[in-house]
Design brief:
RNase_HII/HIII; alpha/beta; 8 helices; RNA-DNA hybrid ribonuclease activity; RNase_HII/HIII_dom; Nucleotidyltransferase, domain 5; about 35% helix; single chain; 5-stranded mixed beta sheet
Length: about 220
Amino acid sequence: MTVIAPRLTLERKLLAEYDLIISLDEVGRGALAGPVAVGAAVMDAAGARRRVPEGLRDSKLVTEKRRPDVAARAAAWVQASAVGWASAAEIDEVGIMRALGLAASRAIDGVVAQGALLEGALVILDGNHDYVSRVHPSPLQVRSVIKGDRDCASVSAASVIAKVTRDAHMGELHGDHPLYQWDRNKGYASPEHRAAIRDTGLSPFHRASWAIADAPTLF
């Protein structure tokens, strides 16, 4: 299967109208345990003239072994990047969609803290649903882009940065909860993970409001 490399076609077009693009992508939405994470990557007109880093793809299309190197080059390529989080407890409290909005809002705040200005900026959100506008306290201009993580290089950068960061976090949580094998399944519903839940019960990092016992395998 031929993998299409992401390009900067849309970003360059939009940067004729906007000063900045803040691209977002989420990781961990379908997991049974751990936080949901949203990566943010900032692109300006000067940055959009630079060559896309070799190997940059949607994080799902990059092997786990290669992801850290690709993420490091992506972070060095964009003007700023950040990862926002919403915990399992927040997901249980407010639901996954609002939790995605919280994580996205925190990622945006992270790049603003690095100097990105929201005035004159456009937020590109992978997918077909705007989950951030109603949550972030500042007015945002948001455009949802279906398959943005595949086609838009700046969204691919946000995707791989968020994926590597969340995977590392799940590896850290694994140290205190090794029975769930989060170092391997990253909190998703692998057979081993579900078996450990049946045998041991839920940890404080599981999304307790979900029907975990009957969850399908998401790989």
